């Protein structure tokens, strides 16, 4: 919370709120700079400035940028990182420092420099803020920050649509789109290595043997549905086993204990 009250006045009010209910304990910190979640809020000459908070106890540059996903997924990672920085950082200099951090993190995770540069430019072109990237235009960045800060996320948009139209049928009850015979979906599991060229090779094979000129399926459009590999999170047990099963001892252990007892 922010306030224009004096230090003593706000401290008295917080102490009164602390004593109001014995079941609720309030701990507070009064200072010009505060860290909350991943945001640092700083008060400078009566103005609030926000930036990204980096926890000093965490190892730097350790980010989940390495994964076994299709190549088109990786282009969203630099964009999402810059989007988060632009939403949080209220100052263009802080945003530029965060951009450098993101650049270093991607390089340390073996992202090609050309790939990083390409998708950094993509972020600023989509949001019409190339002057921020080229010369740190503070006025254009302020407009970018305000625009992205108040832009609803995908989850917020879905929630808003759901609350606006309460009569819409659930997804399981909605009428499915009829099957389109002009589109064929090829499903396959993605893997780093030889399968990186699978889409290109399959398209060549498809056009050569099936979709050649004059064939019955020449008009069919080919699309790929890529499945990612299972992660450790998918393999972990998500439900606790029943208590009798947890207490049950293996049969071979009981048999060994019996044999030892008879031997003695």
What does this structure look like?
The protein is mainly alpha-helical and 264 residues long. The protein folds into three domains: 1-30, no CATH class; 42-154, no CATH class; 181-264, no CATH class. 47% of the residues lie in helices and 11% in strands. It has twelve helices and five strands. The chain has helices at 7-20, 71-74, 76-88, 92-108, 113-126, 130-135, 138-149, 154-164, 198-209, 232-235, 243-247, 251-263; strands at 33-36, 39-44, 47-52, 183-189, 221-227. It has a three-stranded antiparallel beta sheet. The chain has a two-stranded parallel ribbon with strand order 4-5. A hairpin with a 2-residue loop joins strand 1 (33-36) and strand 2. The longest helix is centred in the middle third of the chain and has 17 residues, at 92-108. The radius of gyration is 29 Å and the shape is extended.
Radius of gyration: 29 Å
Instruction: Compute the number of strand runs.
Output: 5
- Domains counted in the coordinates: how many? 3
- Rough outline: extended
Q: Quote the distance from N terminus to C terminus.
A: 73 Å
> By helix and strand content, what is the structural category?
mainly alpha
Tally of separate helices: 12
Beta strand %: 5-15%
- Unreliable residue stretches: 260-264
Characterize the biggest β-sheet: 3 strands, antiparallel
Helix-strand pattern, N to C? HEEEHHHHHHHEHEHHH
* Biggest sheet, spatial arrangement of strands: 1-2-3
Summarize the amount of helix as a percent range. Answer: 40-55%
Mean pLDDT: 76
